[in-house]
Amino acid sequence: MATTTNTATTPPPQQVDSATAEELTAKAAHKRYEGLVMVRTKAIKGKGAWYWTHLEPITASEHLKRGTCPNFNSLPKPISSISPNTALLPSPSSSGGTTVLHTSSNRKRPVVSSSGLSGSGGVASSTYPLTAVGSTYQVSPLAIVDPSRFSDDMAMLPQQPHLMLSGGKEDLCALAMLEDSVKKLKSPKTSPGQALSKTQIDCAFDYLADWVYESCGSVSFTSLEHPKFRAFLNQVGLPVVSKRDFVGGRLDVKYEEARAESEARIRDAMFFQIASDGWKVKSNGGFGDINLINLTVNLPNGTGLYRRAVFVSGSVPSKYAEEIFWETITGICGSLVQQCVGIVADRFTAKALRNLENQNHWMINLSCQLQGLTSLIKDFSKELPLFRSVSENCFKLASFINNKTPIRNSFHKYQLQEYGNAGLLRVPSREYEKMDFGPVYTMLEDIMSSARALQLVLLDESYKIVSMEDPTSREVAEMIGDVGFWNDLDAVQSLVKLIKEMAQEIEIERPLVGQCLPLWDELRAKVKDWCSKFHIDEGAVEKVVERRFKKSYHPAWAAAYILDPLYLLRDNSGKYLPPFKYLTPEQEKDVDKLITRLVSREEAHIALMELMKWRTEGLDPVYARAVQMKERDPVTGKMRIVNPQSSRLVWETYLTEFKSLGKVAVRLIFLHATSCGFKCNWSLLRWVCAHGHSKEGMDKVQKLIFIAAHSKLDRREVLSDEDKDADLFALANEAFDKDIVGG
Fold it and tell me: At what angle do helices 451-459 and 405-419 cross, to 10 degrees?
């Protein structure tokens, strides 16, 4: 039996090793080539001018256009600008074969053919500029050029005149623009993107208009025609807008829409309260003494609606304010003036508001509690000796540091060392101090925050030299080294900060009238703790607080505190009763007097009988707990009432047996205790100061303010854009300070 054996032919080991080595070498050469191409691409894009001495300058015009070569006038004309027929150079011959370059109009890279490569078995493609040397592959000199060889090769080429621009390097930008224009003409235009429909364009401009109007002066109308903004519109496919369109018909339409919505909400409510702020004379940073008086409508459901703006200059008489209030009321409800429950304002409590309340028995006119707390700081600065002594000492210290050049330079040196920044201590003028304690408080903050730097100044040689001749320097040195001075400064700063924090919380929370008594009780407790901490006599401080309390107090505070189910207290029997035990005898009488004033004479005795029943029976525990139910605010972490409208709704739906007292309760407990609302930007006030005599201009300002205020009140925004920006920079400063401390 014959046996057939198939034997595979195995190549010699040397041949296998040789083929493997060739493949590895070819792959390495290919990888090296790709790396060089990447480097050359970066050089072409201008990523680094130093590449040009090592890489073939095939895009030297781009290099010239960018102006990265300082010696472009002395170099030969770039090879890319030479005719392709003369630019082809034969590569050096080798023992393994020769490389021939072919040019083609539809290829960007030179085509390489090698006599030493097999068309089927070669690893390298014919498009790679490789040369064969024996059994290895090397990168062609086209990919990387030796500088000395490049100079020799350039010498072989026909030289063209040096590129000389009559304008020098300043012409490079113009030359680049010329080349770009040529490229645009040679290259086909890219097809435009999908055009926006008219509906999309109108919707986009509606949003843009809302943003511009609601910024209320922060965004100027002229900026709509800024070249960069127009470029942005063009980039997103929107047509160019005109500022005249935004101050013309579009503004009128937006105003009418906001006005109609506001009127509809007011008509839907049974009664309302007027809030007015801006009557206090303020300095507007050089924009004159123009103040913006805001008149807002507060509805029972907690909604705030903007009504009108009034611009006044300087101080105004009380009678004028009274006329503005009454004109606003009649403009809303006509002859049905009883729909206006009352007014809350930041001024004219003693005259205008009291006159209107006496003339209209159903009205409850309140003073703004934010203004009351702010005025308390001014009271302390005038009446407490501690405030006066600390202010005087700080004036002397700050003026000395700022005015003595050697001391100031030393102070700045230690500021930079300790805090990373330097500046003068902010010293207010003596005249301004009498009007407002705010600038004085700023000076106190500067001194307290610079305590470490001030102490280091005393150890500096420059201070010792000045102390030899200036007696004030020795007095200031004793002050800085005195622990008592810093304790007193800390005490004043702590008390002002305490009141400012309460005022800020009031501005944000906007408490109702029933919260006024608990608010002042909280203030008294905090002031008492402050006196204990800094060993201050309580008598003088309490006297100042009580005087301000009496100026701010209104009998409605006590009545609302008693009638609002939010403040009911659970007794031992489980009943929820009104907190009469926290009222003084005078305040209890105020409750009776106010209730009888707010009802007709025929209902007065009925209302008092219902008040006695309310005092003894209170509210059903289930409803009381429902009204007082709280939840944690996810943003602030504070506990808040779940449904603030429950207090009023309980009287309207459940406590219907209290006919007369219920009418008083629902009109009383919704009243706001603050008048703060819309804040106007200074940029708009500056415009009013310049164009306040133009009827057409003021009409547009009124519409702009109404639109902005209507939107902000609807979103319940308290802070202005300027306040938000200030908070943003404050956070940035805090982060910077942490970095300094951490470093």
Answer: 130
Answer yes or no: are the C-beta atoms of 515 and 420 closer than 8 Å.
Answer: no
Is the separation of the CB atoms in 616 and 604 below 8 Å? Answer: no
Alpha carbons 233 and 226: distance in angstroms, whole number: 11
- Separation of alpha carbons 567 and 518, rounded Å: 10
Three-state DSSP at 268 gives helix
* Residue 704: predicted pLDDT: 87
- How confident is the model at residue 94, as a pLDDT? 39
Distance separating alpha carbons of residues 257 and 361, to the nearest angstrom:
36
DSSP 619: B
How many angstroms separate the CA atoms of 695 and 703, rounded?
Answer: 12
Tell me, what DSSP letter sits at residue 687? H
| CA pseudo-torsion sign 71, 74, 79, 80 | positive
Euclidean distance between CA atoms 388 and 320, whole angstroms: 36
Q: What is the pTM of this model?
A: 0.69
Round to whole Å and give the CA distance between 642 and 630: 5
Q: Which of 121, 99, 108, 112 is nearest to 37 (CA)?
A: 108
Sequence-distant (≥ 6) Cβ neighbours of residue 232 within 8 angstroms: none
Kindly compute the dihedral angle of the four CA atoms of residues 515, 518, 522, 527, in this order, to the nearest 10 degrees: 100
Is the distance from CB of 172 to CB of 65 less than 8 angstroms? yes
Distance of CA 237 to the CA centre of its chain: 28
Query: Residue 593 and residue 595: Cα distance in Å, rounded?
Result: 6
430, 438, 443: which is closest to 380 by C-alpha? 438
Q: Write out the DSSP string of 518-539.
A: HHHHHHHHHHHHHHHHHT--HH
Q: In this predicted structure, what is the pLDDT of residue 98?
A: 40
Q: Could you give the dihedral angle defined by the CA atoms of residues 497, 503, 504 and 510, in that order, rounded to the nearest 10 degrees? A: 160
Helix axis angle for 471-481 and 385-403, nearest 10°, is 130
Q: What is the pLDDT of residue 523?
A: 96
CB atoms within 10 A of CB 246: 19
Residue ranges covered by each domain of the chain: 23-183, 251-368+675-730, 369-552, 554-674
What SS3 state is found at 310? strand
**DSSP code, position 350:** I
Could you tell me the sign of the dihedral formed by the alpha carbons of 597, 598, 603, 607, in that order?
negative
What own/partner pairs with CB < 8 Å and gap ≥ 24 does 447-450 have? 447/394, 447/397, 447/398, 447/489, 448/486, 448/489, 448/490, 448/493, 449/419, 450/411, 450/415, 450/419, 450/425
Closest CA to 587 of 662, 514, 675, 651: 514
Neighbours of 655 (CB within 10 A): 20
Could you give the residue ranges of the DSSP H alpha helices within 384-450?
A: 385-403, 405-419, 430-435, 438-449
Q: Give which of 230, 180, 162 is closest to 65, Cα–Cα.
A: 180
Tell me the three-class secondary structure of 186-237, residue by residue. Answer: HCCCCCCCCCCCHHHHHHHHHHHHHHHHHHCCCCCHHHHHCHHHHHHHHHCC
pLDDT, position 10: 47
The strand pairing partners of 570, in sequence order, are: 576
How far apart, in Å, do the first and last CA atoms of the chain sit?
A: 94
Closest CA to 251 of 707, 687, 714: 707
- Residues 6 or more apart whose CB falls under 8 angstroms from that of 80 comprise 57, 58, 59, 60, 61
For 160, half-sphere exposure in the C-beta direction (CA atoms, 13 angstrom radius) is: 10
Listed as ranges, residues in the chain with pLDDT below 50 are 1-10, 13, 16, 47, 49, 51-53, 56-57, 59-66, 68, 71-160, 190-191, 284-286, 736, 740-743
| Nearest one of 117, 110, 111, 125 to 94, comparing CA atoms | 117
* pLDDT of amino acid 444: 95
